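Question: Hello, beginner here. Any chance you could explain the protein record under this note? Any guidance would be welcome.
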Amino acid sequence: MKQTGKATRGTAINAWLPRTPLPVAILLGAVAEALFLVRVAVPHRPIFDEIYYVPAARAMLERAYLLNREHPPLAKELIALGIRLFGDTPVGWRFMSTLAGTATVLAVFAIVQLMTGRLRSALFAGVLTILNFTVLVQARIAMLDTFMTAFLLAGIATIAWAMRDGGWGKWLAGAMLLGAATACKWAAAPYVAFAAFAFLLLKRGHPQRWPGLAPLPAVALLGLVSVATYFLSFAPVLHFRVDPLTWRGLPSYQYYMYEQQVQVLPHHTYQSDWWTWPLLIRPIWYLYEVTDGAQRGILMIGNPLLMWGGLVAVAACLWGWMTSRSARLLAAFALWAGSVATFALIPKSLGFYYYYYPSSIFIVIAIAAVFDHWRARLGKWDERLVIAAFILALCYFPVLSAQALGSPRAFQYWTWLPSWV
């Protein structure tokens, strides 16, 4: 009788969900895209790093010269595509970012669905991703990290799909997506190595996984396809009128990019160390000034409830793996820990909170993994967490979406710590 009661309660909790994830994913994506498009044209001028990437995209459209030469071209090519479709306007600059933000939400949904096999957990993760602040902010600004993270999450989801169902086609697609992420920003490159290591580790312990994929050919294909995808992203920017790139010159150009990445830069107001990002010590005001006729602000910050609470979830994933050897909990922990460790090792002179953007999404996956693993104990606490995160999102929405604020001192309402100013 007790088992029947538990089954009945579980059925009642999930009775409103459809049997397949596709309708839920479509609805989730539609809601995310609609939210990201709300007043996306405000402010009507480039803000923060848009001052570098929008001119670089314009130059690509004119095939004149290559700007922002320290980063690969794919994200700037996508910004240029938005300008071609919608004109050289704020909507044109940012539209492709909204699609990347929606793709990120759907990729999280897919990863958790594949990880847990439960639609409720996948929807929970997707909704928390929307309420996590960082995706909303990055989906409304033309920056490289938005596109890099979208390709990265999509690549992880596709490789997880290959693990479940097998097939060289899915593995090939996952490798291409990871290569595309690296073609947006080099910070994605370590994930190709992470994917290869995870594949070999899981294949050794569970040979039945990735059916049809032999270890050495699979790893070789992952590396070759991701590198080829990366270099193909340079095709549209070859043979510009001024100081053109050529296929022959691409290898030496990579060294030039490396030199630009590791150069010592002057102090920046918003610079911060990697270990401060999980603690939410130094977020960034992308905008805080009078523009479009009013005082407005855009604060790049993670939802404090999810950022701080997510650290507990990450620790719980590690502890749960140590006690139960759950591969799902280990995967959730490793995604977050690996993303943070990357920036502990990268030789850059300056760091910024927005580098934590992928980690702020992986921490949501850790939260979803914890609620799924201990669902019998936690019951409907996932619904309560969503409600609390939604309330905080409503409170912060004015400084996530550049709404008009009451006064120049209005920022005090949202800056809980002195370092947030």
